[in-house]
UniProtKB/TrEMBL annotation:
PANTHER family: ANTITOXIN HICB, UPF0150 PROTEIN SSL0259. It holds the Pfam family HicB. InterPro entries: Ribbon_hlx_hlx, TA_system_antitoxin, TTHA0281-like, TTHA1013/TTHA0281-like, Uncharacterised_HicB. Gene3D superfamilies: 3.30.160.250. This is Toxin-antitoxin system HicB family antitoxin. It comes from the Bacteria. GO terms for biological process: regulation of DNA-templated transcription.
Length: 124
């Protein structure tokens, strides 16, 4: 496959999104660690992610124009133990309320719930 603009844009680069503290302006910072300097921000996670796609496009164009190498993501599956799931606000609220009732973190509650459901499926 020819490694041109479309090739690099089609690659599934890992993205990092973090909260920008309110005293620093608030919002969210989005970056692609494999593409040094490829970062942007937004008022919401969705806006930061959308803006990052524009930044990625410009970053790749710049690197290709300058004839510089472009990192590629590891094409083998990598399971870091971390992933982001978007849920409806009502489900988020229900999960948070249930985790509070059980006296555990939302993260632990969701982890326990996923393990239970997957375990049930594997048992059948």
């Amino acid at each position: 496959m020819k490694k041109d603009f479309n090739y690099y844009m089609s690659l599934n680069y890992p993205v990092e999104i973090s909260v920008i503290p309110e005293d620093e302006g608030g919002g969210y910072l989005a970056s692609i660690p494999l593409l040094p300097g490829c970062m942007t921000d937004g008022e919401t996670v969705e806006e930061a992610y959308t803006n990052l796609q524009d930044a990625k496009r410009e970053w790749i164009i710049d690197m290709l124009d300058r004839g510089l190498p472009i990192n590629e993501p590891n094409m083998k599956p990598h399971f870091s133990g971390r992933f982001v799931v978007r849920v409806p606000k009502t489900l988020h609220r229900l999960l948070a309320e249930e985790s509070e009732r059980e006296g555990i973190s939302l993260n632990q509650f969701v982890n326990n719930s996923l393990a239970f459901v997957v375990g049930q499926k594997l048992a059948h």
